[in-house]
Write a structure and sequence with these properties.
The protein has helices spanning 16-24, 37-48, 60-75, 95-101, 114-127, 144-152, 157-169, 182-187, 189-200, 217-222, 246-250, and strands spanning 5-8, 29-31, 83-87, 107-111, 177-181, 268-269. It is α/β, with parallel strands linked by helices. It has a single domain (5-269), classed as Rossmann fold (3-Layer(aba) Sandwich), CATH 3.40.50.300.
Length: 270
């Protein structure tokens, strides 16, 4: 594709849906709240892996173009003139593959204090008190502590995404990453979007940050999480007190590793 494919791979409740909605309003860009490409890619990996007994008939020279073709063939109908931002939390774990298939690809990672991510998810649950959520396997007996424990597990919604981000940030392809703080995106959206466009080598455009409303009602309802991907019309940061018990809120204070420039000196953060 002439203008290329880039990726959004973020922590949950950290602004990736908002960012995708802003980007897709640029006619030169294509972005969605999520994409099936990562699932298709991993299914193709499984199909050509040694787990498949027929994989013995697939060699490296065949495997690489098959995998690369997932990106090219899925995105081709979008148009060669458009810049594609493909969204999936998985991409932080696939940087070596992305670097091989798409040497110019960059990854935008939306990040946020883990305590406020937990707070945001808990608020979502409490806004829908009669709806059991698929985020917690539709369990009926949970409380804020059990839900937080569930989320921070290694295979939990937050725990997996945080570990994937760590792997990417400390890995050999960290120069492909641009971390976008939630507060930067919501407090200074114009500056933040300009930095993103610069990072991917695209011309910046003027956005209307008072008109970016988005919702995915059917998708959110299907997993028992109404409002999960709802974006308000106006981009703004809204200060608020946390609804988490104080000791639970403070449990996550040491998780913002990306804010330590000494630990990751070359990491780019907006």
């Amino acid at each position: 594709m002439r203008h290329g494919i880039h990726f959004i791979s973020s922590l949950p409740r950290a602004g990736s849906t908002l960012l995708a909605d802003i980007l897709r309003r640029n006619p030169r860009c294509h972005a969605m709240m999520t994409s099936p490409v990562s699932g298709i890619y991993m299914a193709m990996q499984m199909a050509v892996s040694r787990k498949n007994e027929a994989a013995v008939f697939t060699n490296e020279a065949q495997m690489r173009p098959l995998l690369r073709g997932v990106f090219e063939n899925y995105d081709a109908p979008i148009g060669a003139e458009r810049l594609v931002f493909d969204t999936s939390r998985i991409w932080c774990t696939k940087l070596p593959s992305l670097a091989d298939h798409l040497p110019a690809a960059k990854v935008i990672c939306c990040v946020r204090d883990i305590a406020w991510i937990m707070d945001s998810i808990e608020r979502l649950i409490r806004r829908n008190p009669h709806e059991l959520s698929g985020l917690f396997a539709f369990e009926a007996g949970g409380i804020v502590y059990t839900r937080s424990n569930w989320l921070e597990q290694k295979d939990g919604l937050v725990g997996f995404a945080l570990d994937a981000l760590r792997v990417a940030c400390f890995g050999e392809h960290a120069d492909r990453l641009l971390l976008v703080e939630y507060e930067a995106l919501t407090r200074e959206p114009a500056r933040t979007l300009a930095a993103i466009y610069y990072f991917v080598g695209a011309a910046s455009v003027t956005h209307d940050f008072n008109n970016v409303e988005y919702a995915a009602h059917e998708s959110d309802l299907s997993i028992g999480a109404p409002g999960l991907h709802t974006v308000a019309r106006r981009v703004a940061f809204t200060p608020r007190p946390s609804i988490l018990p104080p000791e639970l809120f403070h449990r996550f204070e040491g998780d913002t590793f990306w804010r330590d420039p000494a630990a990751i000196p070359h990491l780019q953060v907006v």
